[in-house]
């Protein structure tokens, strides 16, 4: 009798789910873009937070440890977002509501524009344009040389991430939505509703995917139809959802070396880019509820390649070739094999000011009083530079043209 009642209830839930999905209006996604503008990771630049479209944290340049100070500039307000540069122009977002462009050569100011409210996220450089998500719910494309606005799109909601520009499309996460805008014109190419979920970090784009980590928004509804927080894979070409994994408290996503790596409060989880959700995925939460009532077995977990637990909430993971590097703010750094998550080495050092960076020379660790280079294969220290005249390092960006530091006493320092 119990089995019969369970079967009837499950069939009813699945039937209701199918009716619900069929009644949803089709949303066209996505129209062709007008160009092919993209973020390009090059040795002389760092065009986007995370270094590249996949947010792998990889430097194309080898950081120098035999340097002199080229210039320094006292900033008028605290820096509120990561620095970005195309190698010639540095973009600095300040707490007083300004976006400032400085010469990478000598630190002189090229232009300064007032941003409504404040910049919460780093701008993105793609070609000769800077893409800026504004707190008030607009995204603007500015001419990198003059700050002239090329276009602006008002979304009607608050943007939650930096724009990611790939193949002529600017992807940006917002409260309850993922938007695709034409990078040349600002026209809306398509959008995906996330219901009560918000995008919790910048999208990672690569391997034909746009992957976002989500978190619960203020509206507590919709979880019965697969709207629990987690990680969502969208097809980069069509915008359709391909896979959903309920990773609890996901904070960062990176795509590289044929792997999608997700950092969460508990550690790391890696997925195949080709992962697909089963046809009944949107009924997972309904199924789980029936299990709690004793009316159904446990639903199978989503497929994943590997997972590892860490003793902290890891900083943004780095994908460096065959290795995944993850670090704790307390200075513990771990390397794992990208294919199976096998441990390679562990390093314990001083507290970190930011997530590690990968370079052709090794893994760069940014500490409050200096930075050091670890061998990527063994984890052994290769070089160290102590900054005795710096109160504390808050940010570091390394390019072929030099290293740029933001210090706790409000200075921007260039080392060459």
Could you name the key traits of this structure?
416 residues, mainly beta, Methylamine Dehydrogenase, Chain H, seven-stranded antiparallel sheet, four-stranded antiparallel sheet, 7% helix, globular
What features would you describe in this structure?
A hairpin with a 2-residue loop joins strand 18 and strand 19. This protein has a single domain, classed as Methylamine Dehydrogenase, Chain H (7 Propeller), CATH 2.130.10.10. The protein is globular. It is built from 2 helices and 31 strands. The termini are far apart. It has 416 residues and is mostly beta strands. The strands form 7 sheets. Strands 10, 11, 12, 13, 14, 15 and 16 form a 7-stranded antiparallel β-sheet that branches. The chain has a 4-stranded antiparallel β-sheet with strand order 1-31-30-29, with no helix packed on it.
Concise structural overview:
Helix content is 7%, strand content 42%.
Break the fold down into its secondary structure elements and pairings.
Elements: H1 2-23, E1 69-74, E2 84-85, E3 89-93, E4 98-103, E5 109-114, E6 124-126, E7 129-133, E8 138-143, E9 149-154, E10 164-166, E11 169-182, E12 188-199, E13 204-206, E14 209-216, E15 231-235, E16 241-245, E17 250-256, E18 259-264, E19 267-271, H2 284-292, E20 306-309, E21 318-320, E22 323-327, E23 332-337, E24 343-348, E25 357-359, E26 362-367, E27 370-374, E28 381-386, E29 393-399, E30 402-407, E31 411-415
Antiparallel strand pairs: 1-31, 2-3, 3-4, 4-5, 6-7, 7-8, 8-9, 10-11, 11-12, 12-14, 13-14, 14-15, 15-16, 17-18, 18-19, 19-20, 21-22, 22-23, 23-24, 25-26, 26-27, 27-28, 29-30, 30-31
